[in-house]
Structure formats: structure tokens, C-alpha cells
Amino acid sequence: MTLRITDSITIEDWELTEQFVRASGPGGQNVNKVSTAVELRFEAARSPNLPGPVKTRLRRLAGRKWTSDGALVIFVQDTRSQARNRELARERLAEMIRAALVAPKRRVKTRVSANQKRKRVEAKKKRGEVKALRKGPEV
Length: 139
Known about the structure:
- By secondary structure, this protein is of the alpha+beta class.
- α1 packs across α2.
- It has helices at 52-62, 82-101, 114-134; strands at 3-4, 10-11, 16-21, 37-42, 72-76.
- The model has no long low-confidence stretch (mean pLDDT 87).
- The chain contains three helices and five strands, in the order ββββαβαα.
- Helix content is 37%, strand content 15%.
- The protein has one domain (3-101): Double Stranded RNA Binding Domain, CATH 3.30.160.
């Protein structure tokens, strides 16, 4: 079952590894018996479907979820259902990749106009004069 991100990008099964572990939190006696939490591992660095710049942005977005061997690990234990946790993990992965697809806008350097600089200096001088007038005459 491949994971479809966009029309041009799909994640193949061999790139994803799922491991089910016991979850903490609510669930009563069930929480001690059933492994409902899912750890989804996506081999992002080795993925042929992601372009280089997208991998770089994805690595920055992932933060601590990115491992040293280039995998993205998503851990979900939100619900008591293993199937629902699995869906949530796949959705979160897809959202993270979609966010990495958007290239940030380049920042255009702007300059402060000479008039603005002049106004700032005049305001500072005026403020200084006001403060100087507060002082009493020196004896």
C-alpha cells in the first residue's frame, strides 16, 4: 500500500517500516495486553521519490524526529485503536512532507531611507533635550 503525497510524489512500501509497541495512557487493562502505539519509520534520505531540496527542508522540519542514519521516525499513541494510530502516523508523515515541498520565499533586503534615519536622530535629540531640562541647575 503506497502512500500518496501529491500527484507526482508517492512513498513506496519498502521505504516505510511500522513497529507496534505498548502505549502509555488510558486503556484500562487493555493497555497492558495490546500493542496499540505505532512507530512509523520513513527512510527519507534513501527515498528516490523526494528531490534533494525537499529532503533538506524535511530534515529541518523533522528536528529530533530525524535519525542519524537519515530516517524520519513518527511515534503515535493518541488512540486506543492500533489501526487509527497507524492512520494518524501516515497522515502526519504526509503533512510533514507536504510542508517540506513548499519552498520558502527569498528575503529581499531593504534599506532604511535617509529621511527615516534623519527623523530618528531628531527624535532622539528632542528626547535628550526633554530629559536634560528635567535636571535642576547645577550648583
